[in-house]
Amino acid sequence: MSAINPHSDLAAAAIRGLAPYQPGKPSSELRREYGLRDVIKLASNENPLGPSPTVKTALLAAFDEIERYPDGACFELRDALASHLQVTPQQLTLGNGSNDVLVLLAETFLTERVSAVYDQYSFVVYRLAVQACGAQAHVSQANPREHAMPLGHDLAAMRALVDQNTRLVFIANPNNPTGTWLEHDELRGFLRDMPEHVITVLDEAYLEYARQPGEADTLSWLKEFPQLVIVRTFSKAYGLAGLRIGYCVSSPSIAELLNRVRQPFNVNSLAQQAALAALADQQWLQQGVAANAASLLQLQQGLAKLGLRWIPSRGNFLLVDFGSSENAAACNEYLLRAGVIVRPVANYGLPAYLRITAGTEEEIQRLLQALAQFADSR
Ligand SMILES: *Cc1c(COP(=O)(O)O)cnc(C)c1O
Q1: Is 180 in the pocket of ligand 1 (CB under 6 A)?
Q2: CATH hierarchy code of domain 8-37+283-377
Q3: In 260-300, at which residue ranges do the beta strands (DSSP E only) sit?
Q4: I need a surface site. Which of 132, 140, 294, 312 has the fewest CB within 10 A?
Q5: Is the CB of 46 under 6 A from ligand 1?
Q6: Looking at residue 205, what is its pLDDT?
Q7: Hey, which residues does 92 pair with through a beta bridge?
Q8: Looking at residues 292-316, what average pLDDT do you find?
Protein backbone atom coordinates (compact mmCIF):
# COMPACT_ATOMS: atom_id res chain seq x y z
CA MET A 1 0.00 0.00 0.00
CA SER A 2 2.57 2.54 1.14
CA ALA A 3 4.61 2.09 -2.06
CA ILE A 4 1.79 3.55 -4.16
CA ASN A 5 0.65 6.12 -1.62
CA PRO A 6 1.60 9.49 -3.19
CA HIS A 7 1.88 11.12 0.25
CA SER A 8 4.04 8.40 1.77
CA ASP A 9 7.24 10.42 1.37
CA LEU A 10 5.76 13.20 3.48
CA ALA A 11 5.03 10.89 6.40
CA ALA A 12 7.36 10.38 9.34
CA ALA A 13 9.86 7.62 8.57
CA ALA A 14 8.39 5.37 11.26
CA ILE A 15 4.94 5.62 9.68
CA ARG A 16 6.14 4.68 6.16
CA GLY A 17 6.91 1.13 7.26
CA LEU A 18 3.76 0.66 9.30
CA ALA A 19 1.11 -1.92 8.30
CA PRO A 20 -2.31 -0.96 9.66
CA TYR A 21 -4.26 -3.04 12.20
CA GLN A 22 -6.61 -5.58 10.61
CA PRO A 23 -9.76 -5.79 12.70
CA GLY A 24 -12.16 -8.73 12.70
CA LYS A 25 -14.62 -8.46 9.83
CA PRO A 26 -17.79 -6.63 10.97
CA SER A 27 -21.00 -8.66 10.53
CA SER A 28 -22.50 -5.89 8.39
CA GLU A 29 -19.61 -6.19 5.92
CA LEU A 30 -20.08 -9.94 5.52
CA ARG A 31 -23.83 -9.47 5.02
CA ARG A 32 -23.11 -6.94 2.28
CA GLU A 33 -20.28 -8.83 0.58
CA TYR A 34 -21.83 -12.29 0.56
CA GLY A 35 -25.53 -11.35 0.49
CA LEU A 36 -26.10 -13.19 3.77
CA ARG A 37 -28.79 -12.37 6.26
CA ASP A 38 -27.88 -14.43 9.28
CA VAL A 39 -24.30 -13.81 10.36
CA ILE A 40 -22.54 -14.65 13.62
CA LYS A 41 -19.25 -13.12 14.70
CA LEU A 42 -16.73 -15.13 16.70
CA ALA A 43 -13.79 -13.01 15.63
CA SER A 44 -13.05 -10.30 18.18
CA ASN A 45 -13.32 -11.92 21.62
CA GLU A 46 -16.35 -9.85 22.57
CA ASN A 47 -18.69 -10.95 25.35
CA PRO A 48 -21.58 -12.70 23.55
CA LEU A 49 -23.98 -11.87 26.41
CA GLY A 50 -23.24 -8.16 26.26
CA PRO A 51 -22.91 -5.88 29.29
CA SER A 52 -25.02 -5.82 32.44
CA PRO A 53 -28.60 -4.65 31.67
CA THR A 54 -27.99 -1.75 34.07
CA VAL A 55 -25.60 -0.28 31.49
CA LYS A 56 -28.49 0.57 29.16
CA THR A 57 -30.25 2.57 31.86
CA ALA A 58 -27.03 4.42 32.65
CA LEU A 59 -26.48 5.20 28.96
CA LEU A 60 -30.01 6.57 28.50
CA ALA A 61 -29.49 8.88 31.47
CA ALA A 62 -26.04 9.97 30.23
CA PHE A 63 -27.55 10.73 26.82
CA ASP A 64 -29.24 13.82 28.27
CA GLU A 65 -25.86 15.49 28.72
CA ILE A 66 -24.31 14.49 25.44
CA GLU A 67 -23.81 18.13 24.31
CA ARG A 68 -21.39 18.62 27.24
CA TYR A 69 -17.74 17.65 27.25
CA PRO A 70 -17.09 14.61 29.41
CA ASP A 71 -15.38 14.86 32.78
CA GLY A 72 -11.78 14.84 31.59
CA ALA A 73 -10.58 13.52 34.94
CA CYS A 74 -13.21 10.72 35.02
CA PHE A 75 -13.66 11.64 38.67
CA GLU A 76 -16.61 9.44 39.57
CA LEU A 77 -15.41 6.39 37.68
CA ARG A 78 -11.85 6.78 38.92
CA ASP A 79 -13.12 6.84 42.49
CA ALA A 80 -15.32 3.79 42.06
CA LEU A 81 -12.61 1.89 40.24
CA ALA A 82 -9.99 2.79 42.86
CA SER A 83 -12.19 1.52 45.64
CA HIS A 84 -13.10 -1.63 43.69
CA LEU A 85 -9.43 -2.37 42.98
CA GLN A 86 -8.21 -1.17 46.38
CA VAL A 87 -5.71 1.25 44.88
CA THR A 88 -5.60 5.06 45.04
CA PRO A 89 -7.26 7.19 42.34
CA GLN A 90 -3.80 8.66 41.59
CA GLN A 91 -2.65 5.24 40.40
CA LEU A 92 -5.23 5.06 37.62
CA THR A 93 -5.01 6.21 34.00
CA LEU A 94 -8.16 5.80 31.93
CA GLY A 95 -8.19 5.51 28.18
CA ASN A 96 -10.26 5.22 25.03
CA GLY A 97 -9.96 1.44 25.27
CA SER A 98 -6.84 -0.07 26.76
CA ASN A 99 -5.41 0.38 23.26
CA ASP A 100 -5.25 4.10 24.04
CA VAL A 101 -3.38 3.35 27.27
CA LEU A 102 -0.89 1.12 25.44
CA VAL A 103 -0.23 3.92 22.93
CA LEU A 104 0.14 6.47 25.78
CA LEU A 105 2.77 4.25 27.38
CA ALA A 106 4.67 4.06 24.11
CA GLU A 107 4.40 7.83 23.51
CA THR A 108 5.53 8.59 27.04
CA PHE A 109 8.55 6.30 27.24
CA LEU A 110 9.73 5.54 23.70
CA THR A 111 11.86 7.52 21.25
CA GLU A 112 14.00 6.56 18.22
CA ARG A 113 16.90 5.95 20.57
CA VAL A 114 15.34 3.33 22.84
CA SER A 115 13.75 -0.07 22.44
CA ALA A 116 10.80 -2.16 23.53
CA VAL A 117 10.52 -5.94 23.92
CA TYR A 118 7.52 -8.10 23.07
CA ASP A 119 6.77 -11.66 21.95
CA GLN A 120 6.43 -12.58 18.27
CA TYR A 121 2.82 -13.76 18.73
CA SER A 122 1.66 -11.09 21.13
CA PHE A 123 -1.13 -8.55 20.68
CA VAL A 124 -0.42 -6.62 17.46
CA VAL A 125 -1.07 -3.23 19.07
CA TYR A 126 2.31 -3.49 20.85
CA ARG A 127 4.09 -3.59 17.51
CA LEU A 128 2.01 -0.74 16.10
CA ALA A 129 2.55 1.48 19.15
CA VAL A 130 6.30 0.83 19.25
CA GLN A 131 6.83 1.31 15.51
CA ALA A 132 4.78 4.51 15.39
CA CYS A 133 7.23 6.03 17.90
CA GLY A 134 10.15 4.97 15.73
CA ALA A 135 11.58 2.94 18.60
CA GLN A 136 13.49 -0.31 18.09
CA ALA A 137 11.39 -3.45 18.48
CA HIS A 138 13.15 -6.43 20.02
CA VAL A 139 10.87 -9.35 19.29
CA SER A 140 11.35 -12.57 21.26
CA GLN A 141 10.69 -16.07 19.96
CA ALA A 142 7.68 -17.76 21.52
CA ASN A 143 7.76 -21.25 23.03
CA PRO A 144 7.91 -23.97 20.36
CA ARG A 145 4.80 -25.94 19.45
CA GLU A 146 5.98 -28.97 21.49
CA HIS A 147 6.39 -26.90 24.70
CA ALA A 148 4.02 -27.48 27.65
CA MET A 149 2.70 -23.96 26.92
CA PRO A 150 2.88 -24.07 23.11
CA LEU A 151 3.38 -20.67 21.41
CA GLY A 152 3.34 -18.96 24.82
CA HIS A 153 5.69 -16.18 25.94
CA ASP A 154 9.24 -17.33 26.67
CA LEU A 155 10.21 -15.04 29.56
CA ALA A 156 13.86 -16.10 29.46
CA ALA A 157 14.02 -15.14 25.77
CA MET A 158 12.38 -11.81 26.58
CA ARG A 159 14.79 -11.13 29.42
CA ALA A 160 17.72 -11.86 27.09
CA LEU A 161 16.55 -9.04 24.78
CA VAL A 162 16.49 -6.42 27.52
CA ASP A 163 19.49 -4.09 27.40
CA GLN A 164 20.63 -0.62 28.43
CA ASN A 165 18.27 0.99 25.91
CA THR A 166 15.14 -0.96 26.75
CA ARG A 167 12.33 1.15 28.21
CA LEU A 168 9.22 -1.02 27.82
CA VAL A 169 8.48 -4.74 27.92
CA PHE A 170 4.98 -5.85 26.91
CA ILE A 171 3.60 -9.05 28.41
CA ALA A 172 0.04 -10.23 27.83
CA ASN A 173 -1.34 -12.65 30.40
CA PRO A 174 -3.24 -14.44 29.05
CA ASN A 175 -1.98 -13.61 25.61
CA ASN A 176 -4.01 -12.85 22.50
CA PRO A 177 -4.11 -14.50 19.91
CA THR A 178 -2.69 -17.63 21.56
CA GLY A 179 -4.69 -17.77 24.82
CA THR A 180 -1.54 -18.97 26.60
CA TRP A 181 -0.71 -17.84 30.11
CA LEU A 182 2.16 -17.41 32.58
CA GLU A 183 2.29 -18.63 36.14
CA HIS A 184 2.62 -15.94 38.80
CA ASP A 185 5.92 -17.38 40.06
CA GLU A 186 7.50 -17.03 36.62
CA LEU A 187 6.16 -13.53 36.25
CA ARG A 188 7.46 -12.41 39.63
CA GLY A 189 10.85 -13.90 38.83
CA PHE A 190 10.89 -11.89 35.62
CA LEU A 191 9.93 -8.66 37.41
CA ARG A 192 12.67 -9.21 39.98
CA ASP A 193 15.21 -9.49 37.16
CA MET A 194 14.17 -6.28 35.41
CA PRO A 195 16.60 -3.36 35.74
CA GLU A 196 15.21 -0.08 37.05
CA HIS A 197 15.18 1.62 33.65
CA VAL A 198 12.65 -0.89 32.28
CA ILE A 199 8.90 -0.54 32.65
CA THR A 200 7.02 -3.84 32.41
CA VAL A 201 3.54 -3.53 30.94
CA LEU A 202 1.38 -6.42 32.05
CA ASP A 203 -1.71 -6.56 29.83
CA GLU A 204 -4.55 -8.38 31.58
CA ALA A 205 -7.37 -7.85 29.08
CA TYR A 206 -8.75 -11.33 29.82
CA LEU A 207 -8.09 -11.31 33.57
CA GLU A 208 -11.72 -11.87 34.59
CA TYR A 209 -11.85 -15.08 32.53
CA ALA A 210 -8.38 -16.22 33.49
CA ARG A 211 -8.33 -15.70 37.23
CA GLN A 212 -7.72 -18.89 39.20
CA PRO A 213 -9.26 -19.58 42.60
CA GLY A 214 -6.95 -18.38 45.37
CA GLU A 215 -4.60 -16.61 42.96
CA ALA A 216 -3.19 -13.26 44.15
CA ASP A 217 -4.27 -10.06 42.45
CA THR A 218 -1.27 -8.75 40.50
CA LEU A 219 -2.15 -5.25 41.73
CA SER A 220 -0.70 -6.30 45.08
CA TRP A 221 2.71 -6.49 43.35
CA LEU A 222 2.83 -2.78 42.53
CA LYS A 223 4.42 -1.79 45.86
CA GLU A 224 7.25 -4.26 45.35
CA PHE A 225 7.72 -3.43 41.65
CA PRO A 226 7.32 0.32 41.07
CA GLN A 227 8.17 -0.13 37.35
CA LEU A 228 5.15 -2.42 36.81
CA VAL A 229 2.13 -1.14 34.89
CA ILE A 230 -1.01 -3.30 34.82
CA VAL A 231 -3.39 -2.73 31.91
CA ARG A 232 -7.04 -3.82 32.03
CA THR A 233 -10.16 -3.19 29.98
CA PHE A 234 -13.95 -3.02 29.99
CA SER A 235 -14.01 -4.39 26.42
CA LYS A 236 -13.97 -8.10 27.14
CA ALA A 237 -15.71 -9.64 30.18
CA TYR A 238 -17.54 -6.37 30.98
CA GLY A 239 -18.98 -6.34 27.46
CA LEU A 240 -18.28 -2.69 26.55
CA ALA A 241 -16.02 -3.09 23.49
CA GLY A 242 -18.10 -0.67 21.42
CA LEU A 243 -17.77 2.18 23.92
CA ARG A 244 -13.96 2.06 24.17
CA ILE A 245 -12.81 2.19 27.76
CA GLY A 246 -9.80 0.67 29.48
CA TYR A 247 -7.24 1.70 32.05
CA CYS A 248 -3.90 1.02 33.67
CA VAL A 249 -2.80 0.88 37.28
CA SER A 250 0.71 2.03 38.10
CA SER A 251 2.71 4.07 40.56
CA PRO A 252 1.26 7.61 40.87
CA SER A 253 4.43 9.00 39.26
CA ILE A 254 4.02 6.92 36.09
CA ALA A 255 0.32 7.87 36.01
CA GLU A 256 1.34 11.54 36.29
CA LEU A 257 3.59 11.21 33.22
CA LEU A 258 0.86 9.47 31.21
CA ASN A 259 -1.55 12.23 32.19
CA ARG A 260 0.71 14.80 30.49
CA VAL A 261 0.39 12.99 27.17
CA ARG A 262 -3.21 11.90 27.20
CA GLN A 263 -5.87 13.87 25.33
CA PRO A 264 -7.86 15.98 27.82
CA PHE A 265 -11.15 14.23 26.96
CA ASN A 266 -9.93 10.81 25.93
CA VAL A 267 -12.80 8.90 27.58
CA ASN A 268 -16.28 9.87 26.40
CA SER A 269 -19.14 10.50 28.80
CA LEU A 270 -21.21 7.48 27.75
CA ALA A 271 -18.26 5.15 28.30
CA GLN A 272 -17.66 6.61 31.78
CA GLN A 273 -21.25 6.08 32.88
CA ALA A 274 -21.44 2.64 31.27
CA ALA A 275 -18.25 1.52 32.99
CA LEU A 276 -19.58 2.73 36.36
CA ALA A 277 -22.75 0.70 35.91
CA ALA A 278 -20.90 -2.35 34.63
CA LEU A 279 -18.44 -2.26 37.51
CA ALA A 280 -21.29 -2.17 40.03
CA ASP A 281 -22.84 -5.38 38.67
CA GLN A 282 -20.26 -7.98 39.62
CA GLN A 283 -22.93 -10.67 39.61
CA TRP A 284 -23.47 -10.18 35.89
CA LEU A 285 -19.72 -10.35 35.38
CA GLN A 286 -19.48 -13.65 37.26
CA GLN A 287 -22.38 -15.12 35.27
CA GLY A 288 -20.59 -14.18 32.09
CA VAL A 289 -17.37 -15.78 33.29
CA ALA A 290 -19.23 -19.00 34.13
CA ALA A 291 -21.00 -18.94 30.75
CA ASN A 292 -17.65 -18.52 29.02
CA ALA A 293 -16.20 -21.55 30.81
CA ALA A 294 -19.16 -23.63 29.61
CA SER A 295 -18.81 -22.29 26.05
CA LEU A 296 -15.09 -23.02 25.94
CA LEU A 297 -15.75 -26.57 27.05
CA GLN A 298 -18.49 -27.02 24.46
CA LEU A 299 -16.16 -25.65 21.79
CA GLN A 300 -13.28 -27.90 22.85
CA GLN A 301 -15.46 -31.00 22.92
CA GLY A 302 -16.83 -30.22 19.47
CA LEU A 303 -13.38 -29.54 18.02
CA ALA A 304 -12.03 -32.77 19.53
CA LYS A 305 -14.84 -34.73 17.84
CA LEU A 306 -13.77 -33.22 14.53
CA GLY A 307 -10.17 -34.23 15.20
CA LEU A 308 -9.01 -30.62 15.48
CA ARG A 309 -6.36 -29.41 17.92
CA TRP A 310 -6.02 -26.10 19.72
CA ILE A 311 -3.61 -24.18 21.93
CA PRO A 312 -4.45 -24.22 25.68
CA SER A 313 -6.33 -21.02 26.55
CA ARG A 314 -7.42 -19.04 29.59
CA GLY A 315 -9.19 -16.41 27.51
CA ASN A 316 -12.63 -16.43 25.91
CA PHE A 317 -11.24 -17.82 22.65
CA LEU A 318 -9.24 -20.70 21.21
CA LEU A 319 -6.42 -20.68 18.68
CA VAL A 320 -7.31 -23.67 16.52
CA ASP A 321 -4.70 -25.54 14.47
CA PHE A 322 -5.77 -26.36 10.90
CA GLY A 323 -2.49 -28.04 10.00
CA SER A 324 -1.60 -25.86 7.02
CA SER A 325 -2.10 -22.32 5.82
CA GLU A 326 -4.13 -23.56 2.80
CA ASN A 327 -6.46 -25.54 5.00
CA ALA A 328 -6.93 -22.64 7.44
CA ALA A 329 -7.61 -20.19 4.60
CA ALA A 330 -10.05 -22.59 2.89
CA CYS A 331 -11.84 -23.19 6.16
CA ASN A 332 -12.06 -19.47 6.84
CA GLU A 333 -13.60 -18.91 3.41
CA TYR A 334 -16.04 -21.80 3.92
CA LEU A 335 -17.12 -20.40 7.28
CA LEU A 336 -17.63 -16.91 5.83
CA ARG A 337 -19.95 -18.34 3.18
CA ALA A 338 -21.82 -20.10 5.97
CA GLY A 339 -22.19 -16.74 7.75
CA VAL A 340 -19.65 -17.47 10.50
CA ILE A 341 -16.87 -14.93 11.07
CA VAL A 342 -13.75 -16.19 12.84
CA ARG A 343 -10.32 -14.55 12.90
CA PRO A 344 -7.52 -15.46 10.51
CA VAL A 345 -4.19 -14.82 12.24
CA ALA A 346 -1.76 -14.96 9.31
CA ASN A 347 -0.84 -11.34 10.09
CA TYR A 348 0.41 -12.62 13.46
CA GLY A 349 2.64 -15.14 11.69
CA LEU A 350 0.20 -17.96 12.40
CA PRO A 351 -1.24 -18.77 8.96
CA ALA A 352 -2.19 -22.38 9.82
CA TYR A 353 -4.46 -21.27 12.65
CA LEU A 354 -7.82 -19.57 13.11
CA ARG A 355 -8.78 -17.80 16.33
CA ILE A 356 -12.33 -18.55 17.45
CA THR A 357 -14.20 -16.67 20.19
CA ALA A 358 -16.34 -18.72 22.58
CA GLY A 359 -19.77 -17.33 21.69
CA THR A 360 -23.15 -18.46 22.94
CA GLU A 361 -24.16 -22.14 22.96
CA GLU A 362 -26.18 -21.66 19.73
CA GLU A 363 -23.34 -19.82 18.02
CA ILE A 364 -20.87 -22.57 18.85
CA GLN A 365 -23.31 -25.20 17.65
CA ARG A 366 -23.59 -23.38 14.35
CA LEU A 367 -19.83 -23.01 14.05
CA LEU A 368 -19.27 -26.71 14.79
CA GLN A 369 -21.88 -27.66 12.22
CA ALA A 370 -20.16 -25.53 9.58
CA LEU A 371 -16.77 -26.99 10.52
CA ALA A 372 -18.17 -30.52 10.14
CA GLN A 373 -19.57 -29.61 6.70
CA PHE A 374 -16.22 -28.14 5.73
CA ALA A 375 -14.46 -31.39 6.74
CA ASP A 376 -17.02 -33.39 4.67
CA SER A 377 -16.44 -31.15 1.66
CA ARG A 378 -12.70 -31.94 1.54
C1 LIG B 1 -8.76 -7.09 23.33
C2 LIG B 1 -7.44 -6.81 23.91
C3 LIG B 1 -7.18 -5.59 24.49
C4 LIG B 1 -8.28 -4.60 24.69
O5 LIG B 1 -8.35 -3.62 23.81
P6 LIG B 1 -9.35 -2.41 24.10
O7 LIG B 1 -8.68 -1.30 23.42
O8 LIG B 1 -9.44 -2.21 25.59
O9 LIG B 1 -10.67 -2.78 23.51
C10 LIG B 1 -5.94 -5.33 25.04
N11 LIG B 1 -5.00 -6.28 25.04
C12 LIG B 1 -5.23 -7.50 24.51
C13 LIG B 1 -4.18 -8.54 24.58
C14 LIG B 1 -6.46 -7.78 23.92
O15 LIG B 1 -6.68 -8.97 23.37
Answers
A1: no
A2: 3.90.1150.10
A3: none
A4: 294
A5: no
A6: 98
A7: 249
A8: 98
